[in-house]
Amino acid sequence: MDRQRSQAFMLKLVGDVGTAMAAALAYVGDEAGLFRAMAGAGPLSAAVLAERAGVHPRYVEEWLAAMVGSGYVEHDAAADRYTLPDEHAQCLADPSSEYYLGGLLRAIPNVTAIAPKLAQAFRAGEGVSFAEFGADLPVGLERMNRTVYEKRLATSWLPTMPEVVARLQAGGCAIDVGCGTGVAAITIARAFPTARVVGLDLDARSVAIAEGYAREAGLADRVAFVVAPAEAMPRAPSADGRWDLITTFDVIHDLPDPDRALRAIRGALAEGGTYLMVEPKVADTLAGNVANPFARMLYGISCLHCVPQSLAQGGPGLGACWGPARAAARARDAGFGHFQALPIRSPALAFYEARVGG
Ligand SMILES: C[S@@+](CC[C@H](N)C(=O)[O-])C[C@H]1O[C@@H](n2cnc3c(N)ncnc32)[C@H](O)[C@@H]1O
Fold this sequence. Notes:
Blueprint: H1 3-31, H2 34-38, H3 46-53, H4 57-69, E1 74-76, E2 81-83, H5 86-92, H6 102-112, H7 115-124, H8 137-157, H9 162-169, E3 173-177, H10 183-191, E4 196-201, H11 204-216, E5 223-227, E6 243-249, H12 258-268, E7 269-280, H13 286-289, H14 293-312, H15 323-333, E8 338-341, E9 349-355
Parallel strand pairs: 3-4, 3-6, 4-5, 6-7
Antiparallel strand pairs: 1-2, 7-9, 8-9
């Protein structure tokens, strides 16, 4: 036994539990409005912060201590004042920022509360269904991605595929498979005023929320949502019933039969139509991922959520970190003659363009 190694590991383990506590308390700070009350406010006493946020002062003192200990908040000990640096505030307090990560915090209770059930599922070899992760998981997932989809999808991601833009500008048809609460579908409809857009998802709660958003946006006449499995591709509202653009954002690895879904997508594309597959940006191997903090987080989300909910549908549980080589191989096997990574810079997402012809 290497005593030094054992002590170092003990400290790491304590640090990891501290990180888990910090994440839970960052969720509390986000929900309770503490980060928002600190953003741009400069140094504050605990009492002033409690007043600004309308939160019980004793909770604020203890929360601040935990946040200082975890490096989220700075503390000037001489003046006894607390500051949320601007660089941290953009990740924690500003949902309109592309750097906002509050959505990740929002999903923490949903994915971690499942742990006792997951331990049973590990032993029984069962899955845990999407619905079991809590009624508000769809909104948690939405908050992870909404700002980036709204800021990037139509203005910088789709323009890397000029043919897609041309077809949508000419009133083409697009479908987002595994659409969740419909943010991507609605964003496409907003950007292309004559395009007809559909969102499809198996989760009825997500689809109901999506329909509400489409009505609020005044787009319900051009954006429709359907509750259906990914393999049951509906006909497009076009003469040949086929789609000019099919998208999946963070979906294929969750599916019960990814290969069947990919074949269904390929079969539903119009002549010259495009499939845009967006998946987590990771390397193909565990060894290639260990030093990447995104991959570390993704393996966690994958084990807690993606794999169990795929197994619950009778799926293989590909996991969020299935990597670009397997994505390319599965797309080829599904009959896509063209499959290439798009030149889109993102720390977390990988973009693939697929077409039937080579
Ligand atoms: C990780 S979420 C991504 C949601 C959305 N695309 C986004 O980027 O925010 C995966 C979505 O796939 C949906 N899904 C899972 N299995 C499905 C299936 N068999 N058919 C259709 N949708 C499915 C889930 O309900 C969920 O909305």
